[in-house]
Amino acid sequence: MTYLVGGEAPSESAGKRFRKLLDAPGILQLPGAHNGQAALQAKDAGFQALYLSGAAMTASMGLPDLGIITIDQVEFFIRQIVRSSALPLLVDGDTGYGETLNVMNMVRAFEESGAGALHLEDQLLPKKCGHLNDKKLASADEMAMKVSAAHRARRDLVIVARTDAAASEGIDGAVARAKKYIEAGADAIFPEALTNAEMFREFAKRMPGVKLLANMTEFGRTPFYTAKEFEEMGYSMIIWPVSSLRAANKAQADLYATIARDGSTEAMLPRMQTREELYRTLRYHDYEALDRSIVETVLPTIAA
Ligand SMILES: C[C@](O)(C(=O)O)[C@H](CC(=O)O)C(=O)O
Hints:
Blueprint: H1 14-23, E1 28-31, H2 36-44, E2 50-52, H3 54-60, H4 71-85, E3 89-92, H5 100-113, E4 117-121, H6 140-153, E5 158-163, H7 166-183, E6 188-191, H8 197-205, E7 211-215, H9 227-232, E8 237-240, H10 243-262, H11 275-282, H12 284-298
Helix pairs in contact: 2-4, 4-5, 5-6, 6-7
The protein binds alpha-methylisocitric acid.
The site of alpha-methylisocitric acid (MIC) has 14 residues, from helix 3.
C-alpha cells in the first residue's frame, strides 16, 4: 500500500481511530517515531498507534527541547509519519505555542495534518523536559483555559492534558490540577515525571475513571516499568518518546567515529539496515507496481 492512492487511506478520522484504540481493553502502547521511516519500522513491529515527541523532533533538528520550534515544523513531522504509516498519532503540543487562540490554531493545524491526539502541558516558556529541575508552571486556571480552547477547536482529536506539577506541588497539587483539566474538557491526563510506583498508583487511585498516560522516557526520573506493569497500576497509555531517536543517534555517532578511524564504513555493515531491508520498509515495490499499473491502464498494449 502507498499513500498515493487516496481511496486506500483510512476513511475514519485519526481522532476517532485513536479514541477507539484508547477505549479498547489493555494499555495503548505508543512508541515514539521521530520520522516516517521510524513510523514504518514501528508499524512493521506490530504497533497500532504512535507518539511524536517534541524532544525527538527538536533533537533530530539539532535543537534543544525548549519550545522553540514552530507549528509548521511539527506539521512536517506529522505528515510524514501519517502518510507513511497511516497509524493514529499522539503529538506533543508542548505549551500550545502561545495562549488561547494560538492553542486553537495548533489544534486545527495538527488535526488537519492528520494527528489523532495531542498533549498540552502546564509549563511556561521556555518549557523543559519534564524530568529536569526548576520547571516554571502556569497557573491551573491559565492551563484550564488552554485545555478548554483545545476542546473547543478540535473536531475528533483526543486531548491529553499533561501536568508537570508533581515535582513542585506534590501529588496533591498534580491531582487537583488534573481534575480541573478534565473539567475543562481534557479526555485524558499525563502526570509527568512521577518517580516511583507508589506515586503512579496513588495518582491513578485519585483519578478514577480517567484515562492516564505514563511516560517511560529513559534517563529520566521514572524507573523502568513495563507496559503491563503500568497497566496494572491503572494507566491506559504508555509512551517511549525519545527511544527510537536515542538508538538511531547512538548508531549514527558510532558510524561517524568508524569512518573517522578507518576511512571506511565496512566495519559498520552488520549494524546497517541493508538496501533490501530499506526498500521493504519503504514498500518501494508497491510504488513501482502502482506506476506500472497506471502506465498499463493508460497505454494498453496495441496488438500489431
Ligand atoms: C515527553 C517529552 O515531552 C517529549 O518531548 O518527548 C519529554 C521526553 C524527554 O525529554 O525525555 C519529557 O518532557 O518527558
